[in-house]
Design a protein that fits this description.
about 425 residues, alpha+beta
């Protein structure tokens, strides 16, 4: 079969790299793709939000489409593909709202008693400011809509919270995503990311992971789309898994079905392991980035077979299996990300990864210019390594970051520091 992957980042490169291993797949297209994806798939210059163009291309060339990013999912790309009679993996628009609106997600959890932080939702900045006058600090401010993983502000003081309301709701730093805002209780504990496949009624849980959102070492600096990640999380125990399966995972799938919004695709559960037990920080309606870059390389299953089972409503026949090892991904970014940064710097060293089974270099912000691969974004590459345990995987990943060279290269040097805390 021929498949189409929609997207252009590191997540999509990881998806394409997994699809290459499926005996079901003859040819892979990616729209629009990037320089790294172009080495193993045919890139098609159609933007991710051009739904009709993408659907027309799929009708002519492909049998199965996988949607990578959040924006087209929230915009209803799956509905458009289904209207054309196409097989497509991802949630419909009415289900993608699970990520598209934080207020919807919080209200859903409250209604169905899914553990999460206490919260209030505001459409009016004056009402938000009034509420904050009596709120216990610190608080978390979240732009309601999609904001590339950056629309979250942690405020330690009332003054910071007041500035945050201005940033989100008045200055509209995150665009229309900030027309509505959620003010949330600040939770403490370990963060864990858990990805899952869902077919509308059945859920299958993937291996756990942990992301690093802040731009600088020691979790300092601005929030980013993710500076690195590792899998599995040593803090995600069998006891926590059992609790989440009963009170969070299946409960979310059932809640969406009960609301007339059956969810088919990937649900990403962002969890906080608090003293009172695991609670949901956020939902995403697609693979995380860079979580996909450490979870998919460890999955033993044929990814396409699992995705087809989701689309056909027979996920209950699939048992997910993961390698008994670990993976670490370190993001190589352009210095200045997520604010301002240069583009167009030539990148060298990719040949060092060739033939090395435990290593991968996933392209995120790259482009092909005059026959050379150059930087073309804030997050440029994700260097992933596998090892027998997390410490070995981390050591190998950081060694591999030295193989790649480009001007303005920047990375965090403490990805996986929590591994030391777990004494692994």
């Amino acid at each position: 079969m021929n498949i189409l992957v929609v997207g252009s980042g590191g997540r999509e490169h990881a998806i394409v790299a997994s699809a290459v291993n499926s005996p079901k797949v003859d040819r892979i297209y990616c729209a629009p793709g990037n320089a790294g994806i172009g080495r193993i798939a045919s890139c098609v210059p159609i933007p991710v939000m051009e739904f009709e163009q993408l659907a027309e291309f799929a009708k002519e060339h492909v049998d199965f489409t996988i949607i990578g990013p959040d924006d087209p999912l929230a915009g209803g790309i799956v509905d458009v593909f289904e209207a054309h009679g196409l097989r497509v993996f991802g949630p419909r628009k009415n289900a993608a709202i699970l990520e598209g609106s934080k207020a919807f997600a919080k209200d859903l959890m409250k209604k169905y008693q899914i553990p999460t932080a206490a919260y209030e939702t505001f459409d009016d900045p004056k009402a938000a400011l009034s509420y904050l006058e009596t709120a216990k600090m610190p608080v978390v401010l979240k732009a309601d809509g999609l904001a590339l993983g950056k629309g979250v502000l942690i405020c330690d003081t009332l003054a910071q919270a007041q500035d945050g309301v201005k940033t989100i709701m008045e200055d509209k730093k995150f665009g229309s995503a900030g027309s509505r805002m959620v003010v949330e209780e600040f939770m403490t504990g370990r963060e864990v990311s858990v990805l899952s496949f869902v077919d509308g009624k059945t859920i299958r849980i993937m291996s756990s992971a942990q992301d690093h959102k802040r731009a600088e070492d020691g979790d300092q600096g601005l929030n980013t789309g993710g500076m690195g990640t590792f899998s599995p999380s040593p803090f995600y125990t069998e006891e926590i898994d059992a609790y989440c399966r009963e009170h969070i995972y299946q409960a979310t799938v059932d809640a969406m079905a009960a609301e007339g919004r059956p969810f088919t695709g990937i649900i990403f559960f962002g969890l906080m392991l608090t003293e009172d037990g695991p609670k949901v920080l956020e939902y995403n309606a697609r693979f995380g980035d860079p979580e996909a870059q450490v979870v998919l390389p460890r999955m033993k299953n044929d990814m396409i077979e699992v995705m087809e089972a989701c689309v056909d409503g027979r996920l209950d026949t699939i048992g997910l299996q993961f390698e008994d090892n670990a993976a670490v991904c370190v993001v190589l970014a352009s210095n200045g990300y997520p604010s301002s940064y240069g583009k167009g710097y030539p990148i060298t060293g990719f040949e060092a990864f060739d033939g090395k089974e435990d290593y991968a270099c996933f392209h995120a912000g790259t482009a092909l210019k005059e026959g050379k691969i150059v930087t073309n974004g804030g997050r440029v590459l994700g260097v992933t390594a596998k090892g027998k345990n997390l410490k070995e995987a981390r050591k190998k990943a950081y060694e591999a970051t030295e193989w790649v060279k480009f001007d303005n290269k920047y990375m965090r040097h403490d990805i996986g520091k929590a591994i030391d805390d777990a004494q692994l």
